[in-house]
Amino acid sequence: MHGRTGMVVEGTARARTTAARSMLVALMASTSLGGAVLGGALGVLALASPAAAQQATPGAATANPAGGPVAFALPAQPLQAALDAFIRQTGWQIGYPSALAEGRSSRPVTGTMTPAQALDTLLGGTGVGYRMTGPGTATLVPAPAAAAPGAVLLGPVAVSASALNWTGVSQTTVTQEDLDRKNPSDIRDVFSGEPGIRVGSSIPMSQKVYVNGIEETNLAVTIDGSRQNNKVFHHNGTTLIDPAFLKVARVDAGVAPADAGPGALAGSIAYEMKDARDFLSGDGVGAYVKSSFNTNGSGLTTGLSGYGRQGGFDGLAYLTYGKGGKFKDGSGRKVDGTEIDMLSGLFKGGFETTDGNRLQISYERIHDDAPRPFRANVGFISGRPAWEPRVRDYQMDRQNVVLTYSTTQPTDLWNPKVVLAYGRTDVKTPIYLRPVAPSTVPGSYPGEGGTSSFNGKAENVFTFGIGTLTAGTDFYFDRGSYEDRTMSARERASNAGLYAQARLTPFERLRLSFGLRGDRQVFEGTTDQEWTNSGVSHNLSGEFDLIPRHLTAKAGYSHSWAGIPLAENFILNPAWRYGAGGPEPVTADNVTAGLEARYQGFTVEGRLFQTKLDEARAARYAVGSATLAHDVKSKGYEIGAGYAWDDGFVRAKYADIDVTIDGQPADSDTGTYLATPMGRVVTVGGAHTVRSWNLTFGADAEFVLDLTKVQAGQQSLKGYEVVNLFVEHRLPQFSNLTLRADVRNLFDASYADRATYGQEFGTVTPLHQPGRSFLLSASARF
After folding, report:
1. pLDDT (average), residues 572-597
2. What's residue 17's pLDDT?
3. Can you list the alpha helix ranges (DSSP code H) found in 239-297?
4. How many whole angstroms separate alpha carbon 513 and alpha carbon 231?
């Protein structure tokens, strides 16, 4: 929820609140949702990195006649999220147009102070100020207007309730500040520090994300609102991302809202890419360049962007190119197939009318072309034929086109969003044949798999006294195909959905989110047979402040219906026998509960969770395996603690996750496109900024314990410990030049990430992570 329009007067607000509460009672009485058992454990919120030195924006603290001192512990984060947290903690009402908050980040707020003082600090350096409109109510304005006496905010602006933009009970958000601190080279770096989110493989083109052990194709994954359908080849990754373009990543683990999209069996992952408004707050032009050199493999990656805004137009173009050799693992061995050869680009252009109608188009593409291990997510498998090469060339190409309409001046009844998108991923690699005597050279021919999705949605957000209601419809046309000189095959699926999601604050200490969606899918197999299925998904979650500002209880439940998922392209078989009924639609049930405690910069949080997938399709190439399915369960808990201050933070997390398939411990082969073993993981980290020196330094460590709970005949998964360090120095007098040095894998550990394929099998040499690496980076903004 981004828009806030239509100023609400006090009497009208009371009338709307009464009517809305009646609506809430009626909705809850007429909707049958699953229950959630409220439990507790202790854990930590991910705290964002410290912001760079900034000067506070003058506010209107002296105009505030209400509100005593409050203990705040708000990390630096996207401005919209920071305002929502401030609203939730103070009970203030803040009105602002969404465009004013977009692309801006808050300063951290830590310590005991009045709400007005906290708002001053939160808005410091953002270019946004505020003016008081009554006791405990304020309106945000551009900073120059805030300093003008008697400033008047033009245009309709709605008072925001604390339910607006409530993030959910199990959401992890990787903010721009997090990304700046992590300096990610791939998607594994993006999610570092999150023990419940694992990323297997050490090569970006074969990395897969697992949330609580569940593979990402069982989540609703979007890029700028575009549905991703990337089940190409199980030895490749599913969503190749260039983190240079990334603005924010949000993960709903398990319980996801109805408006997250179809197929949210085990939650959702939403990636948002940057646009010109993230670099410019007003008219102008600029450029940004960043180059990084990795000593381990001599890899050089350079990104260059240009952007501008003029009148209602804005545009950004971003290009990244990476080239490098093989890296060495912790034992000093060069790992075959780990060269860097990547080219990626992003273009975003937008036009906004004076009355707030905004149209934006984006085109994103990433291409990886290099020799990779024969199976791109596996180091080597012993016992293979001698003629099978250790590496082969892979070409992986993913592209995404998104057209979006929205408004930056919404009203209570008009806050629309319309998305039309097309995404496609292609993989080409040679298929090798046994050599014919007397030759010892294998023959080969190209094989190509491709997935695509034409998708879209149209929704509107209705705002009333105690919250919002998002209602809309969405669709997709997904296609998966494989072709070589010997055969071709395809599967297709189309889906139409209707959904509604309410996010409400019935009273000050309670926040509720509940929703319902219905889907109708038509699935077409490789034999051109069609099956039509329909299903309903629902969710309910909430937060209750047991001790206002200090202790919050959270719980949530969801039941998700996803229809029949497409099979992997490289195993499609035109001779599959689907049977009269075809594959079974996949469903899932998720439950989570936990506690969060906050006190003067300290944060402690914990949650319990369980995800169950029923009839999860796991097709294989064999003729009778088109309808093969498994039942998957992931359960466990996450706990930890952290402390944040004005210029830094420290935190620690621990997760213990047990994943089973058909009642047996999960293994990465049976779990292809389903799940992976997890076990126990500890992460710790921290960072601090010395403002007077424009210097930031930090460290993080990951401890993965041995996993001995495996199936009979399989080997235990070995644990490992990894430590990383960084130091960064900003030189604003030299075109905002930033110099940074990272030490990755300080103690040169030899290991494969827990989520990397094949570690349970004695015949498999897993794909190892790089050994000690020094990453030297320089960036400048003009």
Report:
1. 96
2. 40
3. none
4. 31
